[in-house]
Amino acid sequence: MAQDLTPAYTVPGIELDDAGRLIGLLRTRLHALNDLHLTLKHIHWNVVGPHFIAVHEMVDPQVDRVREMADDVAERIAALGGVAQGTPGALVAERAWDDYSIGRADAIAHLGALDLVYTGVAQGVRDAVKVAGDIDPATEDLLIGQLRDLEQFQWFVRAHLESAGGSLATADATTERDAASRGAQLG
């Protein structure tokens, strides 16, 4: 049974039902960002191999920015009159994806898997932008800015996975393990 997220009040100019739709949309984004933050730290802690330091140091600024994004989304939920559910239990109960599946692994293997993670997160933001754009330009703008940063982070990741000829090692991968395996073949 779907939870009614219609707030008792919201920002001026938005109907309560529309605010409820935005809150539901943003809750999913909040869970995705909190999950991404933890996944990035997991990679930071479990990366090994000759590219260790490059990936270890590349990931931390991404962690910081993703945490800022989560904070911005949570504050937008609150401004709309909703409750920002930031607990691990809410994340696990409401997410539609599995935990990151790679443990201690070569840096390029992690980047292969992370490429797929970024693809999923960015697609979720793109879908949310479409819905928010019909309701609220402020929420749409917030999401578009985040999408731009997430796509830049994915570009950083993909630079490690791309050949000089322009082919992407993870182009046809459908699972994190497959993408990690394809990435590891480059390492």
CATH superfamily: Ferritin, core subunit, four-helix bundle
Outline, from the CA principal axes?
Answer: elongated
Determine and state the CATH class: Mainly Alpha
| Count of helical stretches | 6
Structural class: mainly alpha
Distance between the termini: 47 Å
Low-pLDDT sequence parts: none
Q: Which series of helices and strands comes N to C?
A: HEHHEHHH
Integer average pLDDT: 95
Indicate the proportion of strand residues: under 5%
Radius of gyration: 18 Å
CATH topology, anyone? Ferritin
Write the CATH architecture name: Up-down Bundle
State the total count of DSSP E strands.
Answer: 2
Tell me the domain tally.
1
Q: How are the strands of the largest sheet arranged?
A: 1-2
Helix fraction, binned, reads: 55-70%
Report the major sheet: 2 strands, parallel
Question: What does the model show?
Answer:
The chain has 187 residues and is mainly alpha-helical. The protein is built from six helices and two strands; from the N terminus they run αβααβααα. The protein has helices at residues 16-46, 52-79, 88-94, 107-133, 137-159, 176-184; strands at residues 47-48, 105-106. The longest helix has 31 residues, at 16-46. The relative contact order is 0.16. The model has no long low-confidence stretch (mean pLDDT 95).
